[in-house]
Amino acid sequence: MSSISPASLLEEVELRPGRPPVLRAGTTGDAPRWAAEHREALRAVVAEHGCVLVRGLGLRDVAGAGAVFERLSTGLMAERETFAPRRTHADGVYSSTPWPPNQPMCMHHEQSYALEFPGLMLFACLTAPHRGGATGVADAATVLEALPTALTERFEREGWLLTRSYNDEIGSSLAEAFGTDERGAVEDYCRANAIECAWQPDGTLRTRQRRSAVLRHPADGRRCWFNQVAFLNEWTLAPEVREYLVDVYGADGLPFNTRFGNGDPIGEDVVQLLNEVYENHTAREPWQAGDLMIVDNVRTAHSREPFEGPRDVLVAMADPVRLSDCETASEVTVR
């Protein structure tokens, strides 16, 4: 099997302001074979630019997309601690997160609240929406530099805190998030993954986990704003949704929320600032059916914009990285 040199493929990447890097594959006729032949060169492109959108592969079904995912990765991951259960199409191949089409999913790094998270995200568009629905990307080092120093220094000192309240009405169930609803097994998982857990009188579970907000990339050491502080915060929710959830579950019983690492609430102004900085540094390109996007999950945040019409984008999480593999930019104690 022939292979393509990283240097030659890098020269073919289209770089335009406001767009992710784009590589045109042309008509391949055999996407998995093309992916295998270009594997190292594609990974070099992602190492250089943080992501790449490959256009022209003609991905049409789960089998073809899954085969491409497997050939480009060092191993696909099963999702854990999920917030909204995805449909599993095949081992390690999932649907996009079921999020209301009219609401954006703001920038985040997949599973940045976990001790082990994907180093690589893979997306395949089988059906493009009529309007909107782009998977935006933003460079985490650039975002970090654009944020106010006082704010990032606080997050570096304290980290960020994720709180969750599990119930049977909204979000993932215990079984969907932990792979089991047996109390002892859930508690074992939490202990092994530095998650505080407390059972409530009504039998529901509340958890807290403190994580670093800034990491150094395991390959090149660059400092990256790596978290889901804004995405999982109450102030990112649509106002009517937030009001309903607070009314039903109380301010301390929201399905998920984020705080400063010392437990202080994060104000609406901070969340708005974070989302504005992300927006100012977002690159986007409308999906076309058959597209593939490869994203370095540590270096590059991703989002999903509102859309109209059917949208079928498959997702795989790959190349697991442990938090301990990334030198944190602070002395945050994970707990």
Q: Distance between the terminal alpha carbons, to the nearest Å?
A: 47 Å
Low-confidence stretches: none
Beta fraction of the residues? 25-35%
Biggest sheet overview: 7 strands, mixed
How are the strands of the biggest sheet laid out side by side? 1-2-15-6-18-4-3
**SSE class:** alpha+beta
Give the full name of the CATH homologous superfamily of the largest domain.
Clavaminate synthase-like
What share of the residues lie within helices? 25-40%
What's the domain count?
Answer: 2
Dominant shape = globular
CATH class call of the largest domain: Alpha Beta
What is the tally of beta strands? 18
Order of helices and strands, N to C?
HEHHEHEEEEEEHHEHHEEEEHEHEEEE
Radius of gyration, CA atoms, in whole angstroms: 20 Å
Count of alpha/pi helices: 10
Q: pLDDT average, as an integer?
A: 93
| CATH-defined architecture of the largest domain | 4-Layer Sandwich
CATH topology of the largest domain: Double-stranded beta-helix
Domain TauD/TfdA-like: 29-316
GO molecular function, one term: dioxygenase activity
Organism: Streptomyces griseomycini
Protein name: Alpha-ketoglutarate-dependent taurine dioxygenase
What does this structure look like?
The protein has 335 residues and is an alpha+beta fold. It folds into 2 domains: 167 residues, 4-Layer Sandwich (Double-stranded beta-helix), CATH 3.60.130; 135 residues, Double-stranded beta-helix (4-Layer Sandwich). The chain is built from 10 helices and 18 strands. A 7-stranded mixed beta sheet has the order 1-2-15-6-18-4-3, with helices on one face. Helix 1 crosses helix 3 and helix 2 packs parallel to helix 4. It is globular, with a radius of gyration of 20 Å. The model has no long low-confidence stretch (mean pLDDT 93).
